[in-house]
Amino acid sequence: MVPPPLMSTNSSGYSMSQFLSNALSQRGPDALPYAEETKWLIRQNLLTLAEAFPSLIPKTSHFTHNDGRTVNLLQAEGTIPMFYTGVVYNIPATLWLTESYPRQPPSVFLTPTRTMVVKPDHPYVDRSGHVSVPYLRSWIYPSSNLVDLVKTLSQLFGQDPPLYSRQSPPSTSSPDPNRSSSVSHPVPRPPSMSSSSGASGYTPPPYGDRFQQRHRPMEDPAEVIRRNSINRLVENVNGDLFEARKKVKGEMDALFGVQAELKTRGETLNCGIGEMHREIEGLEQQLQLVMMNADVLESWVKENSCKMKISDVDKVDGMFETHDGLSRQLLEQTSADLAVEDTVYALDRALQDGAIPFDKYVKTIRTLSREQFFCRATIAKVNAAQLQSRVANMAGRLRNPASYPI
After folding, report:
1. Where is 72: in which H helix or E strand?
2. How far apart are CA 318 and CA 312, in angstroms?
3. Which of 49, 147, 208, 261 sits 20 to 30 Å CA-CA off 95?
4. How far apart are CA 44 and CA 150, in angstroms?
5. At what angle do helices 146-159 and 221-305 cross, to 10 degrees?
6. Is the pLDDT of residue 147 over 70?
C-alpha cells in the first residue's frame, strides 16, 4: 500500500482536544468514516499518543486505498524516537487510522525525506515505506493501542534501523600541489534524520558510513544474546496471541451460528406450541358440546322412563317416539328396508328347500329389490337433511351460548 500525498487540514487556533472533537463530530459529506460507538475511543487514543509522543501530531488528510478509493481519515504525523548506539534518532512516520480502526490496526508508513533511503530487505519495512510488525499483525481490540504500537516500533527500529542517509558524491576538485599526495577519505555525512541528542558536531548514522562502522566498539556478546532472546520471545508471544485470537474468533463464529440455529428452532417451537394451544381450545369446546348433549339425553331418559308402563313393553310400535317428521320418515324407511332384507333371506331358504318355483322366486326378488332401492334412496336423503339441520343448530348454539340447555 503506497501512502497518498498529504493534504492535511489546518487545525491552527484550536487545541488538540478541540480539533479532534470538531473533526469527529462533523456530519454530512465531510464526516469521518468511523463508527459512532468508537469515535470517543479514537479521540482518547490520539490524545494519549500525543501526550506520550508530542512529536506525533493528529491531523486529517485524504488517504487513497489500493482500489483507488479516496477517503478523509485521521492520522498521526511526525517522528518516532529511536535509540541507536546511545543516540536518539527521530524516524519520520505517519500512522493512518483506517475506517475499521480501532477494531483493525492502523496503517503505518515511513515518510523518508530526499536525503534518506529505506534499508533494502528490512524485516519490518518494505521499499514503499509500509510497516508490518508483529504488534500490528496480532492487533487485539480493545487492548491494543497507539502508544504501545509506537513503543514497539521504537524498540524494533532501534535494533534494526529502517532508514539511512544517502552517500554524498565524491569531490571532483583538482588536487592542491602544496598538499600531500596521500589519498584523503571523505568526511562521513551526519544522518539526515533529526537527532535529539543535543550534541553538536557529527553523530554516527545508523547505516551508510563504513568508516564509522570500522571504528565502532564491539558489543557485549551476552547483551546481544539477551536482546535477541527478548526479540524472539516477543515475536513468539505475539504469534501465540495471534493464533489464540484466531481460534477464539472461530469459536465465536461457531457459537453465533449455534445461536442463530437455536433462535430458529425456538421460533418453530413457539409456533408449534401456539398451534397446540389452539387445538386444545377446540377440543375443550367439543368436549363441552358432547357433555351438554349427554346431559340432554340423560334428562330425556329420566323424563320418559316413568311414563312407560309395563303393559306397553310388548307394543313394539310404541317403543320409540320420533322427534320430527324426518325422524319418523327415517324410522319407517329403515324398518321397510330391514323387512325387505328379512323377506329376501326367507325366499332364499324357501328356494333351497324347493318350496317355491324358481320363476316365481325371480319375479318376487325383482319386485323386492325395486322397493328396497327406493327405501335406501329415501334414507340417504333423510340423513342428508338431518345432518344439515344439526349443523345449523350447532352453529346457532355457538353464536348464542345462552341457548344451551341447563
Report:
1. strand 70-84
2. 7
3. 208
4. 16
5. 150
6. yes
DSSP string, 299-317: HHHHHHHTT--GGGTT-GG
- Exposed, middle or buried, 150 (CB in 10 Å: 0-12/13-18/19+)? buried
Instruction: Please state, in angstroms and rounded to a whole number, the distance separating the CA atoms of residues 10 and 146.
Output: 23
DSSP 244-272: HHHHHHHHHHHHHHHHHHHHHHHHHHHHH
- The predicted model scores a pTM of 0.42
Residues 6+ positions from 27 with CB-CB distance below 8 Å? none
Angle between helices 325-353 and 358-399 (to 10 degrees): 160
Q: How many angstroms separate the CA atoms of 48 and 146, rounded?
A: 8
- The residue-averaged pLDDT of 100-124 equals 90
CA atoms within 13 A on the CB side of 118: 18
pLDDT tens-digit readout, 332-363: 899 899 999 999 999 999 999 888 899 999 99
Ramachandran class of 370: left when φ > 0, alpha when ψ lies in -120 to 50, beta otherwise: alpha
Sign of the C-alpha dihedral computed for residues 186, 188, 193 and 196 taken in this order: negative
The HSE-up count of residue 390 (CA atoms within 13 Å, CB side) is 10
Cβ atoms of residues 32 and 74 within 8 Å: yes
Q: What is the pLDDT of residues 26-48, one digit of tens each?
A: 887 778 889 888 888 899 999 99
**Residue 318 has what pLDDT?**
61
Whole-number mean pLDDT of the chain? 79
SS3 content of the chain, % helix, strand, coil (to 5): 55, 10, 35
What pLDDT sits at residue 110? 93
Write out 96-116 in H/E/C secondary structure: EECCCCCCCCCEEEECCCCCE
Task: Tell me the CA end-to-end span of the chain in Å, nearest whole number.
Answer: 89
Lookup result for grid cell 481519515: 73
> 106-144 burial by CB neighbour count: b if 16+ within 10 A, else e?
bbbbbebeeebbbbeebebbbeebbbebbbbebbeeeeb
User: Grid coordinates in use for 370?
Assistant: 325395486
Q: For residues 112 and 122, what is the distance between their CA atoms, to the nearest angstrom?
A: 15
Please report, for residues 6, 12, 84, 109, 112, the alpha-carbon distance to residue 93 in angstroms, rounded to integers and kept in the order given: 12, 21, 17, 6, 8
8 A C-beta contact, residue 99 and residue 71: yes
